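Tutorial sheet, problem 5. The two components below are modelled jointly, 694 residues in total.
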Amino acid sequence: MKRHYRYGALVLFIVLAALALAACAAPAEEPEVQEVEVTRIVEGESETIIITTTPAEPIRLGLHTPLTGGAADLGDDQRKGMTLAIETINVSGGVLGSQLQLFTADNACTPEGGTGAGRELIELHNVSVLLGGMCSGATMGAMEVMKELEVPGVTTGASSPAVTEQDNIWEFRINSHDAMMGEAFSRYIADNADSVVMLVLNNEYGRGADEAFRSALEPLGVEVMSTEYFERETADYRSILTSIRAADPDGIVMVGAAAPANVFIRQFRELDMDQKLFTRGVLGAEFVDLTADDPSLGEGMTSINYWTFGADTDFQEAYEARWGEDARFLAAVAYYGTYVIADAIERAGSADSTAIRDALEDTNMQTGMGPVKFDENRQAYSNSYVTILTDGEIKLLEVIEQKQP
Amino acid sequence: MQLFIDQILNGLTLGSLYALVALGLTLTFGVARMVNFAHGEFFMIGAYLFWIFQMQLKIPYLPAAGLTVLAMALCGALFERAIVHPILDRPWYIHVVATLAVSAALVSGAILLFTTSPRAAPTPYARVIFELGSYRISLQRILIFGITIISCVLLNLFVQRTKLGKAMRAMSQDREVCKMLGIDPQRIILVTFSIGAALAGLAAAFVAPVFVIMPGMGALITLKAFATIIVGGMGNVRGTIMGAYLLGVTEALTAGYIASEYASVAPFVLMILVLMFRPHGLFGQKVGL
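Model answer (structure tokens):
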């Protein structure tokens, strides 16, 4: 009998707790006029103003990006870029008279994490559209959920060509993928090296880029001697570098991120190697910060990316005013992606997911990373930027305007 | 042949890194019979403390390393009092859940405190390069190698020769008999966790300068430290050192002669093979703590 009381008390407690949570989560029945303090950026200057609003139902946007694990720093860049865009749009009155509301979920940069984050955002937070991705595997994990639940997503960052080859009508990508960048960068590599070794991150992104760069380099007569793989948490590159030194290629094409590249470059210099370094996803403000103790570490390193510091000074100033740091490429692409979504919602005339998806198909807008107009695979042809690190500063070598075939 | 020798030397430097992280882990298991899943996060906290001392407070390298070790010894003592002490006599799965919870809380705490941005804490020693024939190695890596050997020797001397060390060995064999003989288990376990965390701090102070400091930095290296102590024999200091070098060399040779994509898997394959043929580890039965 005592046991039954205990179970009864437990069930009662759970029910009461659930009711309390539901009460906390439930929206207010009557929209009230309220004063909101907001920060806006005018000509690069930040100022705080009070605005009076009668809130309509907010439009819910979901960001799935890594917030834990080895790529969490990059996910945080995405959150900051998207937050800045949403705040700026909301200060200007929002979209269709509604404020944009951001929900974030951690995809841990893994396919299963992407699926979980997509489901959390759509089923739990009831978002109208998803943004983010960043990691190709996580993006493809979330795409399955988007297709199943019929919610569109704008990918900002993931660069494996496979993302837009899934025949998934709910997925749109605004940044160039690695086959596009590989083709453009290969011309530059071929002018500077006859042979290279690929050194890529051991995930969907690295493997996709490896395949894309190989198929672009080999027709140009550049011998790809081998492909070596590393993990984000790899502490020791010396074994790989010893093998590369024995093979003696003219260059190394590294596809990765700033944090592992910081560990790599120190060991590359330690071994006194002289291969030319061509990189993807490495060179940015973060790499410069990490190697600030010796700016010569990355001297001469070249890179291709879908955005670079210097490409959009207005955004850079707003970002610096909001977050107190230099903008990085994944923040920039998330910022533009938010504007692409806002534009689609505006044209759709509602926050209905299907209407937004249809409107996204007709997107034709100019962003700080070039034009965004989707092809039949829902891939945009925005710019790519070739940069070089000299004297501790990233300098722009070439802006490549991608052409829709 | 030169390539082979270079890869063996690479394996030994890598093994030193694993050994330094694994030493504290094996010590706490050996004495307290508790697998501490938060040990990797001790390493991470140690790295952040080292970063604060060296990069923020501008304390020179070796004093900053010393402060890190002391601060981590204190953290270890706090961990023992707050977490280990209340659950020590509970079943093993309580230990697993509690230490995993601490691990998750420490990672989340580090994200909140330090953000997810990676930090670098380089030392001037990383730029001092020695050449041994065609083999080049930085002074920082030689320091890691040296400190691993010194730590191992000192730890062995401590557990073999000192009264406290002998009490720790006795504890690892039979806690109940120790109580009857007047050894205070609580004090021994407090000291053990303090030394274990100090060793994680030592590893952080020497390894962080060649690595990158992030909230998740402890994950992979700790998994390999677990593989190390399983290969060497859990709770066995000398076995841990041998296991670490074996794993390091296996990983380097896999990267050099088989394929780099299998390099991170190689230590775990070795671990599975050892578990299949010698479940107590390669040195588990021959050498006691």
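Marking note: The interface with chain A takes residues 3, 6-7, 10-11, 13-14, 17, 107, 111, 115-120, 122, 126-127, 129, 136-138, 141, 207, 210-212, 214-217, 219-221, 251-253, 255-256, 259-261, 263-264 of chain B (CB under 8 Å). Full credit if you identified this.
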